[in-house]
Amino acid sequence: MSDAIRLYFFQTGRIRQKEVDIKLGYGQEDFFTPIPWFFITHPRGNVVIDGGTAVEAALDPEGHWGALINKYYPLMDPEDGCVNRLKQAGFDPADVKYVIHSHLHLDHTGACGNFPNAKHIVQRREYEWAFSADWYMKLGYVMKDILKPGIEWEFLEDEDGFDLYGDGVIQTYQSPGHSPGHQSIMVRLPNSGPILLAIDAAYTFEHWNDKCLPGALTSAIEVAASVRKLRRLAERENAMVVPGHDPDSWPSFKKAPDFYD
Ligand SMILES: [Zn+2]
What we know:
It is a single chain. By secondary structure, this protein is of the alpha/beta class. The protein has one domain: Metallo-beta-lactamase, Chain A (4-Layer Sandwich). Helices cover about 20% and strands about 30% of the residues. Strands 4-1-2-3-5-6-7 form a seven-stranded mixed sheet. Strand 8 (about 160-165) and strand 9 (about 170-175) form a beta hairpin. The longest helix has 18 residues, at about 220-235. The structure holds zinc ion. Zinc ion (ZN) binds near residues 105 and 178. Keywords: Hydrolase, Metal-binding, Zinc. Belongs to the metallo-beta-lactamase superfamily. It comes from Ancylobacter vacuolatus. InterPro entries: AHLLactAttM (IPR054889), MBL_superfamily_lactonases (IPR051013), Metallo-B-lactamas (IPR001279), RibonucZ/Hydroxyglut_hydro (IPR036866). Pfam families: Lactamase_B.
């Protein structure tokens, strides 16, 4: 376990969809989005955020994701699975103390069941919606991931500003609208300063800058309000903002094995 606080950016390949499925009202052209996930070393225990797409979807897209692949197709090398990439970077999956889930869509549940000593933190509202999602979002939840055996869940009861270690380094902020229990994660680093992982509260900077809504959402009202809230937070702290699936800005961030500290 490292004593240094560091934030690593990883990626489980990409997803192919139509541009309109990311940016509401845009075109029908194929559009390729990165699938990010994050890893934080902290003296009190290492943390995975989301874990990207599960390896099973890379091995058998239709078998694992079902009919959703007709709209969202995973382009992923099984080698890109979060456990494999962490091991390659020299980390022990057994040292992961927490997995923080922004939400439980199928490109964010790759960590489920893969970290034997981790508690999985999620908003209860999100977990319950995963089991009861309305028709237009039902396929976005893969219960084979969420119900993997051995997962120890820890639920946040609409808690806003949850501070994992009480030191302000890793703090979650409710940002619903893309899904009912979505949360974004602020990581405050000693040298790099605050980095706001908006995750799917802002797929791209077009969302962040009020140019369009995301192609998948449960509430346009909440989506817009969440972006406003996160923008205020980021401006107040002068945070670097990382959108959830932005092919334009993603190449500009440092990737593992490089890191922010
Ligand atoms: Zn999502």
